[in-house]
UniProtKB/TrEMBL annotation, chain A:
<dbReference type="InterPro" id="IPR021151">
    <property type="entry name" value="GINS_A"/>
</dbReference>
<feature type="domain" description="GINS subunit">
    <location>
        <begin position="5"/>
        <end position="93"/>
    </location>
</feature>
<dbReference type="GO" id="GO:0000811">
    <property type="term" value="C:GINS complex"/>
</dbReference>
<feature type="domain" description="DNA replication complex GINS protein PSF1 C-terminal">
    <location>
        <begin position="109"/>
        <end position="160"/>
    </location>
</feature>
<dbReference type="InterPro" id="IPR056783">
    <property type="entry name" value="PSF1_C"/>
</dbReference>
<dbReference type="InterPro" id="IPR005339">
    <property type="entry name" value="GINS_Psf1"/>
</dbReference>
<comment type="similarity">
    <text>Belongs to the GINS1/PSF1 family.</text>
</comment>
<dbReference type="Pfam" id="PF24997">
    <property type="entry name" value="PSF1_C"/>
</dbReference>
<comment type="subunit">
    <text>Component of the GINS complex.</text>
</comment>
From TrEMBL, chain B:
<keyword id="KW-0158">Chromosome</keyword>
<dbReference type="Pfam" id="PF05916">
    <property type="entry name" value="Sld5"/>
</dbReference>
<dbReference type="InterPro" id="IPR021151">
    <property type="entry name" value="GINS_A"/>
</dbReference>
<dbReference type="InterPro" id="IPR031633">
    <property type="entry name" value="SLD5_C"/>
</dbReference>
<keyword id="KW-0235">DNA replication</keyword>
<feature type="domain" description="GINS subunit">
    <location>
        <begin position="75"/>
        <end position="145"/>
    </location>
</feature>
<comment type="function">
    <text>Required for initiation of chromosomal DNA replication. Core component of CDC45-MCM-GINS (CMG) helicase, the molecular machine that unwinds template DNA during replication, and around which the replisome is built.</text>
</comment>
<keyword id="KW-0539">Nucleus</keyword>
<dbReference type="InterPro" id="IPR036224">
    <property type="entry name" value="GINS_bundle-like_dom_sf"/>
</dbReference>
């Protein structure tokens, strides 16, 4: 792009000083190329941003390291800033604690769901104090709202029989 | 669902709707569902209904407190808990679809908010406005830092209003008429057709371009389905 721009600049200067009208179409052409290149670059970057935003909604606040590896420093900064804005918004919705809108992605069908554990996750405490040990391939019948986060992280799997 | 709510509150069954008229919880939830469906199916960001959101949040906390006091193992507790979950889902979905629209059309949304007159109802709640502004600043900083500063001097700014597409107001939506409307002007789509008027009967369902019925949606005369 720089090369195109420099060529254009030299032509513009020439056209201005010497009054050569015939250089103008080539200047216009190069300008159009520059604009198109700018659009392509910005479109690519914006698309990446949209995907990163989708990651926040899918994975939650902490990104897996292999994904983080693919992002550059400015993208990480954008992600952190977006996280902060979103958290501020959620906190401010009605009441003192706010509402976590990244939960409840699908309409609730039943209170308790059958889940199978895909990885070892250690101990997990539910509302009435009982502690469940999440070992690989163990099945449990747990309250839905507790499991949603873990299902999205891939630790639990919803079993529909 | 409405039985559970009116059962639950006991003496506290009247809520202020923010405009001197009291609403029962049943009406409040009906209004929330209406706002939710309208927001989901409209291509544009609709008016902000923050008073409904606040009232519903109050209701939810109230119901959860009630639930804590009831003994466990009681059948009604699980029914009420389902209800709380459902209401929370509707509220979350409503807020999510608004946020998604804000993020998709952020420069236009901010422009609309800046250019509205003082008397008009606002499209964005203060928190949503802050979110939209932060999103714009964030994206601009990112683009500048990664690409634009390497570009030639006359191309270092990107006009967001032109770069981000506008909401498509001509998309078709399904609607149900709640209040009878006469003489709605429908504009022609092709040059051969002429514009014509339709009368919308109460209770009838139609498929129309959003642009034609947009003011009716904000007035509450039609419901998008």
């Amino acid at each position: 792009m720089k090369a195109l721009y420099e060529q254009n600049q030299s032509d513009v200067n020439e056209a201005k000083t010497e009054g050569k009208g015939e250089l103008i179409p080539s200047i216009k052409l190069r300008h159009c190329c520059l604009l198109r290149n700018q659009r392509c670059v910005v479109a690519y970057l914006y698309d990446r941003l949209l995907r990163i935003r989708a990651l926040r909604w899918e994975y939650g606040s902490v990104l897996p390291t292999n994904i983080r590896f693919h992002m550059c420093a400015e993208e990480l900064q954008w992600f952190n800033q977006y996280k902060k804005s979103l958290a501020n918004f959620m906190r401010s919705v009605g009441g003192e604690e706010g509402l976590d809108i990244t939960q409840d992605m699908k309409p609730p069908k039943s209170l308790y769901i059958e889940v199978r554990c895909l990885k070892d996750h250690g101990e997990f405490e539910i509302d009435d104090g009982t502690i469940i040990l999440l070992k690989k391939n163990s099945q449990h019948f747990l309250p839905r709202w507790k499991c949603e986060q873990l299902i999205r992280q891939g630790v639990l799997e919803h079993v529909m029989s | 669902m409405s039985d559970g709510l009116s059962d639950d509150d006991g003496g506290d069954h009247l809520l202020h709707g923010g405009q001197e008229d009291v609403m029962t919880p049943v009406e409040l939830i009906a209004k929330l569902e209406e706002a939710w469906l309208n927001e989901k199916f409209s291509p544009d960001l609709l008016e902000n209904k923050s008073e409904i959101v606040e009232c519903v949040m109050e209701q939810l906390t109230h119901m959860e407190d009630n639930l804590q006091r009831v003994s466990k193992g009681d059948m009604k507790a699980s029914v009420h808990r389902m209800e709380i979950d459902r209401i929370r889902f509707v509220l979350s979905s409503y807020l999510r679809s608004r946020l998604q629209k804000i993020e998709k059309f952020f420069p236009h949304v901010l422009e609309k908010e800046k250019s509205r007159a003082d008397g008009d109802p606002s499209y964005l709640s203060p928190e949503e406005y802050a979110f939209a502004r932060e999103y714009l600043a964030n994206t601009e900083t990112y683009l500048k830092a990664v690409a634009l500063r390497h570009m030639p001097p006359n191309l270092q700014a990107v006009d967001m209003m032109k770069a981000v597409p506008e909401p498509c107001l001509d998309s078709f939506v399904f609607l149900r008429v709640k209040v009878r409307q006469d003489n709605i002007m429908v504009e022609p789509e092709t040059d051969d057709q002429r514009e014509y008027v339709v009368d919308l009967e109460e209770g009838s369902q139609h498929l129309m371009r959003y642009r034609t019925i947009a003011p009716l949606v904000s007035a509450g005369a039609v419901q998008l389905i």
